[in-house]
Structures are given as structure tokens and as C-alpha cells.
Amino acid sequence: MELMDGVTIVLAAMGLGELCLGFHVLATGRVPGGRVKDPEQIRKSGVFCILVSGFFLLQAVGYAGVRFDLFPWAVQAVSTLLSFVLGVVAVTRYRPQFVLTGWRRRAEQDHDQPGGSGGPEVTKRPGA
After folding, report:
1. Residue bearing the bigger pLDDT, 113 or 48
2. Confidence grade of residue 25 (pLDDT, cut at 50, 70, 90)
3. In Å, how far are 14, 43, 62, 95 from 29, measured between CA atoms?
4. Is the Cβ–Cβ distance between 62 and 45 less than 8 Å?
5. Which long-range contacts (C-beta less than 8 Å, at least 24 apart) are formed by 90-94?
6. Helix (H, G, I), strand (E, B) or coil at 100
7. Which distant-in-sequence residues (6+ apart) come within 8 Å of 2 by Cβ?
8. Phi and psi of 55, rounded to 5°?
9. pTM to 2 decimals?
10. Which of 8, 10, 53, 107 is the most exposed place for a label (fewest CB within 10 A)?
11. Spatial distance between the Cα atoms of 34 and 17, rounded to a whole number of angstroms
12. pLDDT digits over 71-99, tens only?
């Protein structure tokens, strides 16, 4: 077994996991962790997971098609291109907005407070 065979197996496993997560989110209407209450954000999160799983699974199928010569080169090319289209659509259109880094979250809280500058605080060095 080559390294790329292992990578393909990991991609397929990640794709199946994301697919299950996406269907779970859409079916139950809840995001794991329970921090999201807005139905629109929950729907976006579920669709995002399903599209990302499509990216992973189509990448795995495309590589398996090349490795084992399962189908013609045109099908392999279309599956690879379609996987990138799904990935781009997932990131640009359906990326959940509730995923914030700690720095961005603190900056937004600072901006919302009265007298907040909206940006990181700048301090002067002593003696400057």
C-alpha cells in the first residue's frame, strides 16, 4: 500500500463522517455543541458539511479511478473538477458564520462596548 492509498482512505472516512454529520444537523435541527440557535445558521451548517463531504468523497473516487483504472479519464477529470466546485461553493456560500477565532471574537466584543475602538488596543512602550 502506498502513501496516497492511505490518504485516500482517510479522505473517504472524513467524507463519510462529514456526510453523516451534515444529515444529522439537517434532520435534528441542532448543531453539535448547541451554541447555535438561529435556524438559518443551522441549515447553512448542515449544507456546508454535506458539500465538504462531497469534496472529500469525489477526491477519493477520483484518485481511486486513477489508481485502479476504474473509469475513463473524462469521468476522472469531471469528478475532480466537480469536487473543487463543491469545495468552493461550500466555503464561499455556506460557511457557517458562528465559527470565530478568539481574537476576532474579542475584537467584536471590544467594538460593541461603549468607547471601544473596534480594533486591537495599541499601547506605548515605557519611555517612548
Report:
1. 48
2. very high
3. 22, 8, 32, 17
4. no
5. 90/47, 90/48, 90/51, 90/52, 90/55, 94/44, 94/47, 94/48, 94/51
6. coil
7. none
8. -60, -50
9. 0.72
10. 10
11. 19
12. 888 888 899 899 999 999 999 998 876 55
Q: Residue 62: which of 87, 95, 92 has the closest Cα?
A: 87
Q: Is 40 exposed, middle or buried (0-12, 13-18, 19+ CB in 10 A)?
A: exposed
CB-facing half-sphere around the CA of 23: CA atoms within 13 A: 7
**What's the CA gap between 80 and 109, in Å, rounded?**
41
Listed residue (61, 94, 88) closest to 75, CA to CA: 61
What digits encode the pLDDT tens for the residues 35-81? Answer: 778 888 899 999 999 999 999 999 999 888 888 888 888 888 899 89
CA 50 to CA 57: how far, in whole Å? 10
Helix (H, G, I), strand (E, B) or coil at 21: helix
Euclidean distance between CA atoms 49 and 15, whole angstroms: 9
Q: Could you give the CA distance from residue 53 to residue 14 in angstroms, rounded to a whole number?
A: 7
